[in-house]
Structure formats: structure tokens, C-alpha cells
Model the fold of this input.
Amino acid sequence: MLFIRCPYCHQRVFRFFYSGHKENHQALRPDGQQNEYVTLHPTGRYEGTLAGVPQCYRHPKCGVVTRMPEEIIRSYLVNPFLYGAGSFCCGCGEHIPEEELFWTETGQNMAEYTRELRDAYIRKHGAPPPAQG
Ligand SMILES: [Zn+2]
Ligand SMILES: [Zn+2]
Done:
């Protein structure tokens, strides 16, 4: 394939330009967040209600609560393997391992929550999805 479907902006990008293109998305803004994060294409995201889905997480070390962007929530509800390395903390201004973050709505540890979503995905589909990005 000559083109790659970019998982950050969902444009088709010429293969030879993709690594530079991806680096631009992953570059950090002054506040420490990436320019863009991997998401599913808007047509492939979870479209149901987010009632009952945890959306804010607290980092006990700094005490600050961060809201998860909706497009990311709607992506990992479909594919819980998209993320997992860590999540941005507005208090620390950097990405923190999921093991250190807790949902304010449920009190559940984020790493544990991700594991549950992944287990449910594998029970339903039989295997993890192909890697992206
Ligand atoms: Zn892109
Ligand atoms: Zn923090």
C-alpha cells in the first residue's frame, strides 16, 4: 500500500511521509499534551450514551482531576487496545502510568478498568484487534 490511513487525523498519508507526519501529531504542546492522540475514525466510534461510563480521573500524587476527551472515550470503548501506556495528568503536565490514576465516578483504578475492557473485547471477538499506528 502506498498510503497509510493516519490513526491521528484519519487522512490518507503517503507512506514515505508518514513517520514525519506521525511525529508532528505526537509532538508535545507547551502544556505537555500531545498535539493529537490516536483515535478511531469518527464513523467507527462508540455512539451510545456515556451515562455510567467514567470520564474523569484523579491522580492522588498531585490531587488533580483530568477529564478524558470524549473522542478518546468513544474510541477505546470500541477498541480498548488503542491506549494503555498512560494518560495525561493536568496537574503534573505529563503522562502518568494508568496504575497511578483512579476514576472519580467509580473509584476504580484505570489500569484495572482497561484490563476489564480488554478481557470483555477478547471474550467477544476471540482475539485482540490488529495494531494501529
Ligand atoms: Zn495524521
Ligand atoms: Zn498529577
Observations:
- Residues 6, 8-9, 11, 13, 21, 25 surround zinc ion (ligand 1) (CB under 6 Å).
- Residues 1-36 form one domain.
- Residues 110-125 form the longest helix (16 residues).
